[in-house]
Amino acid sequence: MRVVLTGGGTGGHIYPALAIGRYLRERYPGAEVLYVGTKQGLESELVPRAGFAYEFIEVQGLKRSLSLQAVKTAWLAIASTWTARRVLRRFRPQLVIGTGGYVVAPVVFAAYSLRIPAAILEMDVYAGLANRMASRVADTVMLSMEAGKDSFRHAKRIVVTGNPRASEVTRMAPDDVTATIASLGVDRRRPLVVITSGSRGAAPINDATFAWLSGKEDMDYQVVWVTGQTHYEQISSRTANLQERLGSNVKIVPFYHDMPSLLSLAALVISRAGGTTLAEVTALGVPAVLIPSPYVTHRHQDYNAAALVNAGAAKLVDEAQLNGDSLKRMAEQLIHNRFVLEEMRQASLRLGKPDALTRIGAEIERLTTQGS
């Protein structure tokens, strides 16, 4: 089995691709996996660390206005497709799988030109431009959520598989959960609220959390606050008195390496609404307060959040209305109502697809054996 994985820019595109890579190695001993990304994206750091062969091509986001930069972008799009063709000719994959980001389009178009089967996996309800373009020539579009079908009306084939991270988070070892309890000092007798906004963090969420917790003298619940690497030093300097006052009730960290174990302990999670985050949350059945980012393209996190809110698995807070009072009020209304939390947990589990890797594996099998 020889497969090319491609996707980049953010962890939401890269981690699912790596999950597929690990699945292929486990399912097909001796499988060869090549990851194609860019030099600038996060993939250039994460992929080699995960132990996969890596090659890069030069590509950048499409420009919608006429300018010298737009001309350069168009030229790079053509050149990157030819570069991708050379990579594919040399590696001779049986299948190409793209998971989102601008690097996907040239690699999938190169596969199409060489008559290599290709699939794309879309993590969000509102698909990104690269995946929408690639879907016109891809053999299969795999969706994380049913609601994403409207983005791919011209696709040859659509299957709802779920996000592969959903499978990985449900396979955590009990020892990993025990280690998380010990390292963060989690008291299992009291409900835990996990606040996170991605590896880089989000200033509006951090500011609202600081305002909320600054007004607390005592708490009957715990908070693990993941600030993001960028904001941690500033938050630490502002929260010295807060941590002294609230003690073990609040744990503030810049990043946590084992989020699945941490989420599995949570009674409630407060987060952005990226597709991969929501796949993890619903696989574990964690009730959520979602604060979609207004800064992402086409506000696609709004569509992701709506899928959970409409199903009863999450509550929505618009960033424009976000402050310490609104966040505290929402969180405490939920954390003190176990009946509502249980209803949300069940709704979340109904949306989750912990068998995503099995479904994706079946599609990989179909694409690599068709016509053989």
Describe this structure as you would to a colleague:
The structure is a single chain. Mean pLDDT is 90; it is low at 63-75. With 372 residues, this protein is α/β, with parallel strands linked by helices. The strands form two sheets. The protein has a seven-stranded parallel sheet, sandwiched between helices. Strands 10-9-8-11-12-13 form a six-stranded parallel sheet, sandwiched between helices. It has helices spanning 11-27, 43-50, 68-91, 104-113, 129-134, 164-169, 174-184, 203-214, 232-238, 240-246, 259-264, 275-284, 300-311, 324-335, 338-351, 356-369; strands at residues 2-6, 32-37, 53-56, 95-98, 118-122, 140-143, 158-160, 192-196, 222-226, 250-253, 268-271, 288-290, 314-316. The protein folds into two domains: 2-168 and 354-369, Glycogen Phosphorylase B (Rossmann fold, 3-Layer(aba) Sandwich), CATH 3.40.50.2000; 171-351, Glycogen Phosphorylase B (Rossmann fold).
